[in-house]
Specification:
This is Crossover junction endodeoxyribonuclease RuvC. Its EC number is 3.1.21.10. The chain is an alpha/beta fold. The chain has five helices and five strands. About 45% of the residues lie in helices and about 20% in strands.
């Protein structure tokens, strides 16, 4: 049986003020982190300018690392409608950017990510960070939550994706 070719993914934790972004690669049965960052937008900018900051940053990452898949977390909001609208618009622009580059788009709920990473659906940020550090053997103590969450979203996909059972999801 031939080994699977490496799979490179760009995973994001969607936001408006901050967007966690991580590029991970699966080689055979192991995962490695190639890049992670927290994209920040300026609150003084207009919503359109802030979305453009996010999409331009993602474009640079896509051009540099050439991922095949774009992975995002679904968003859940209950309180602030303005924030929900802004994040939803930014998330839509991110998905559109990925689609424009031909990436297959996959989505996971926060519950799916927590179960995949901590084996517990109510895992908190500290538990996610701890498990990400253990799974990838890296220090997450200085990472912003959004960056660590993006890594967790990417790990969720890499642990569950099987090319035999998934069709291209554009």
């Amino acid at each position: 049986m031939l080994p699977n070719p490496p799979l490179t993914v760009l995973a994001v934790d969607p936001g408006f003020d901050r967007v966690g972004a991580a590029v991970l690669q699966k080689i055979n049965s192991g995962e490695i982190l190639l890049h992670s960052t927290c994209i920040r937008t300026d609150r003084k900018d207009s919503p359109a300018e802030r979305i453009q900051t996010i999409t331009k940053s993602l474009e640079k990452i896509i051009e540099k690392f050439k991922p095949e898949h774009f992975i995002t977390e679904t968003i859940l909001f209950a309180k602030n409608k303005k924030t929900a609208i802004n994040v939803a618009q930014a998330r839509g622009a991110m998905i559109n950017t990925a689609s424009n580059f031909g990436l297959s788009v996959f989505e996971y709920s926060p519950l799916q990510v927590k179960i995949a990473i901590t084996s517990y659906g109510r895992g908190d940020k500290k538990q996610i960070s701890y498990m990400v550090s253990k799974l990838l053997k890296l220090d997450t103590s200085n990472m912003i939550d959004d960056e660590c969450d993006a890594i967790a979203v990417g790990l969720t996909h890499l642990s569950s994706y099987n090319p035999v059972f998934h069709s291209k999801n554009k």
